[in-house]
Amino acid sequence: MPATIVRFILNGRPTEVMVRPMMTLQTVLREVLGYTATKAGCKQGGCGSCTVLVNGEPMVSCLLPVEDVADQEVTTLEGLTPVEGLHPLQQAFFENFATQCGYCTPGMIMVAKALLDHNPHPDRQTIIEALAGNYCRCTGYEPIIRAVEDAARRLNGGRP
Ligand code: FES
Ligand code: FES
Questions:
Q1: Ligand 1 site residues, Cβ closer than 6 angstroms
Q2: How far apart are CA 62 and CA 97, in angstroms?
Q3: CATH number assigned to the domain comprising residue 99
Q4: Cβ(122)–Cβ(130) under 8 Å?
Q5: Which listed ligand is nearest to 48 at the C-alpha?
Q6: DSSP 3-state of 10
Q7: Which of the listed residues 79, 109, 140 is the one where a domain comes to its end?
Q8: Residue 95 exposed, middle or buried by CB count within 10 Å (0-12, 13-18, 19+)
Q9: Which ligand is nearest to the CA of 109?
Q10: Residue 49 CA: which ligand is closest?
Q11: CA of 137 to the centre of ligand 1 (A)
Q12: Which pLDDT tens digit goes with each residue over 81-136?
């Protein structure tokens, strides 16, 4: 099958890319467009490290044919990061030691972003359930949960 052109909105910018049939969004982001914050862990939908937002909803990009995001809005960690400084979620992960090797961090932050967009005041159990599809081999999860709680406070104008 011939290559095709897929157009979508990436981090607020119209983006056009020539792809082979059935290329995943993960491959396009990392290997064609150079957006390497989206990680490539298991590549089987099991670890969550490749999570991005599609129209505001978290999706594992390793299972998503890029054709499926045609005309949709895709957000990666690069799109969340301000030109200067850090997004409150990034700051909270940093200050709560929620990152060690960092491989899971972009996926965790994208899931947390979607959660806090939908529910600015999640309780602890809701955070745990939201992050259930994202694996971390380093932190034991507790600092990550604390970081999301902390980010929720920051985003709601509370003290860190
Ligand atoms: S790399 Fe996509 S879920 Fe693991
Ligand atoms: S910080 Fe290493 S996998 Fe989570």
A1: 40-43, 45-50, 60, 62
A2: 27
A3: 1.10.150.120
A4: yes
A5: 1
A6: strand
A7: 79
A8: middle
A9: 2
A10: 1
A11: 14
A12: 999 999 999 999 999 999 999 999 999 999 999 999 999 999 999 999 999 999 99
Our answer on whether the CB atom of 75 is closer than 6 Å to any ligand 2 atom is: no
Residue 17 is part of which domain span?
Answer: 4-79
Distance 65 CA to ligand 2 centre (A): 26
Give the sheet arrangement for strand 57-60, strand by strand. 13-19, 4-10, 73-75, 51-54, 57-60
Instruction: Indicate if 35 and 65 belong to the same structural domain.
Output: yes
Compute the C-alpha angle 153/134/136, nearest 5°. Answer: 90
pLDDT given at position 158: 73
The number of the ligand 1 atom at minimal distance from the alpha carbon of 48 is 3
Please tell me if the CB atom of residue 102 comes closer than 6 angstroms to any atom of ligand 2.
Answer: yes
**91 compared with 157, residue with greater pLDDT:** 91
